[in-house]
Amino acid sequence: MNNEPTPEENRTASIIVDACVQLHMSLGPGLLESVYERILAHELTRRGCRVARQVSVPITYGGVSFEEGFRADLIVDDRLIVELKSVEKLAPVHKKQLLTYLRLTGMRLGLLVNFGEELMKTGIHRIINNGP
Q1: What is the DSSP string of 1-45?
Q2: Any bridge partners for residue 97, and if so which?
Q3: Measured by CB atoms within 10 angstroms of the end CB, which terminus of the chain is less buried, N or C?
Q4: Is residue 2 a part of any domain in this protein?
Q5: What is 74-106 written as a DSSP string?
Q6: What is the pTM of this model?
Q7: What are the Cα distances from residue 123, in Å, to 24, 77, 79, 116?
Q8: Which InterPro entries match (predicted)?
Q9: Residues 17-60: pLDDT tens digits?
Q10: Contact criterion met (CB below 8 Å) for 103 and 129
């Protein structure tokens, strides 16, 4: 798998980052993750993106398919996973979690967004799936 995001993935990521910054500037940190998720989904839809919330993604393990492997907070334009947090500080496992989601879905690019940060620019992390 080519590890560079496509122009379409980068365009979608830019729209998401801009919406997150605007949302954070308007509301600030400290709200529940679910509040940011709902409002961000609304804002992205308003900007022309297709957004699915709390998407149940099945996984296969040992030849057995499990319907609810995990729930993706947001899948945008069927090409990018957005994992939202609202915590004081991200833990290293949060980036690993998103990378696992990307690998299980075969998607290349994800954004880990922490609305708990004082500045949104330090709360957004691009995660790239480099392969199987």
Answers
A1: ---SPPHHHHHHHHHHHHHHHHHHHHH-S-S-HHHHHHHHHHHHH
A2: none
A3: C
A4: no
A5: EEETTTEEEEEE--SS--HHHHHHHHHHHHHHT
A6: 0.93
A7: 10, 22, 21, 8
A8: GxxExxY
A9: 999 999 999 999 999 999 999 999 999 999 999 999 999 988 88
A10: yes
